[in-house]
Input
Amino acid sequence: MTPSASSPNSPNPPRGRAASPGGPPPSGPARSGPGSDGRPVPRGARYAWYALLFVLGALVGTAGTLVQAAWLPAGLLLALLATAGLFHGGLRATGTQVGVVAPGVGWLLSVVLLSFGRPEGDGVFGGGVGELLFLFGGMGVAVMCATLSRLPRPAR
Output
């Protein structure tokens, strides 16, 4: 009796996904950062990406604040979709949760600063339900994107 290829005592037992013919290729080393080719990204380049994502977060937060107040039901949805796209894009671009935190901090800072108003009583937020949904919805989207598991990137 000869041992089959699937028995544990065979000289070459199948291992994981690589053993199945025609299956997906095995995932390589964890990739992170822009231009992910398996090599580590320089620290300065990574900080530049995080700074860019911070500025983009502030811009999306400011634009979302104005849009959700102007066109309430559709504007709120558009603002939350843009926020989710930025946070998820930051996660995919950097491969780290800091890629979500950097634009999230910029977004939250701009939204909070715009909610304060001025001493004369002027403010961007009017204090309605839409503003609260935008604020808490954006924070919820940031938390969801930060806790997503990092999926392996498709092979090129």
User: Anything to note?
Assistant: Helices lie at 43-70, 72-94, 98-116, 129-146.
